[in-house]
Each structure stands twice: as C-alpha cells, then as structure tokens.
Amino acid sequence: MSIRQNKKVAVFTVEDLTKTYHTGEVDVYALRGVSTKLYQGELSVVLGPSGSGKSTFMNIIGGLDTATSGRVMFKDLDLSGASETELTNFRRRHVGFVFQFYNLIPSLTARENVALVTEISTNPMRPEDALALVGLEKRMNHFPAQMSGGEQQRVAIARAIAKNPEVLLCDEPTGSLDSKTGRLVLEALTRINDELGTTTAIISHNAVIHKLAHRTLYFADGEIVREQVSDKRLTPSQLEW
Question: Which fold has domain 10-102+167-233?
Fold first, then answer.
C-alpha cells in the first residue's frame, strides 16, 4: 500500500486547540495549542502515552466534546462554536465511532446491532454489506455472547461504517485484543479505508500500528511533538507485535 497521489483535501483543520479542566484550584491542561490537519481518504494513527491528549483530541474533532479555545473546522463547518444540536447532527451525518469496548446490545444479533444505525441514517448501506466488509457475513445471525472479542469488535466497526460516514474515529480499537485478533480488526479498518475511501483515524498505545498509516501524529503532554507522513505502508499481516 502506498500513500494516495491525488491532491490532498483537508477534512479537519485544527488550529491552536486547547482543553483545560478545572479541578478545585488546579487547572489541568489536556491539550496545549494543538494544530494539525487530517486529509480526505487518509488513514492516520495517533500515538502517545496515557494522558498525552490523544482521546481528548479525538473527542473534540468528533463533536463529543468542546475545546476551551482554538478552532476546529470540518471542511467548511466550524465546530468550535457549534451548539449541542449542531454537534449531534454533525456526529449523526458524518462520523462513525469505534471504541475499545464494543457496546453491543446482548439481546440482538450482529445484523440487528448494525441495523440499529442504518434505521436512523440518511444514506446507509445494508447491514449485511457492512458485516461482509469486516468478514462476518457468516456470523450475522449470531448474538454477541456467541462471538469472540475480535468478532464483537468487527461488529462494532460494521455498525460504525453502516451509515456511510465520511470519517471513522477509532479509540484503542485493538486495546483489549491479542495480536492475532488485533490484526483481524486492523484488516477490517484498512479495508474500509482502502475500498470506501473513508477518512480514518486510529488512537493506539501500540507504536507498531503507525506502519499502517499514511500519517502519524505523536502526542506528548497535550501537544503534537511530531508528525510523520509515510510513503511506504505495511499491511496488518506484516506487522510484528
């Protein structure tokens, strides 16, 4: 896999982003003046230790949280001053989320879990097609308790992409999985990025995952300390954990 050669279009433009939490008389800085861009069709990996600001950054660009100061643009939409209703509409229309914990409904099958999203989306794909994209076409009638952790995470990915989002944001999607199962989850994510062109960002503690990325953002102490663009990417099966 190699980086796309087409002209880059910024999906997110982040300018001088800060996030401060007030704890009693102490101010805790989660983000300190972060500026960067994420580009259409790219797969980005966000690396850094716990507490470095990775999840706060992703929550803000995904419309789950708001910044203390700075600016976040999604194309021509300014998220910085958006209302709760506007942020809800932004998330519903444009963003799919994948988290470390799958949050599947135990009483529903894989297909039914995915269908929950497609029923409220404006331009969804069929649940069956979303599950096929993550390699679970033969497991769609199984319940979460009948599936492994990796399979449940792939159902969660299918649920996230079934509404055809422009952006897929993944926070530690392999965090609770062994290396073999983690590779299967990463194969699903890279396939979605390659075949659908979905702009994808993956938060991880696992530095080796950056070898999948078009672009890697390295966080430390609430700042991006390095940004790396790759012209030679590996496939998940080539990763050595």
Answer: Rossmann fold (3.40.50)
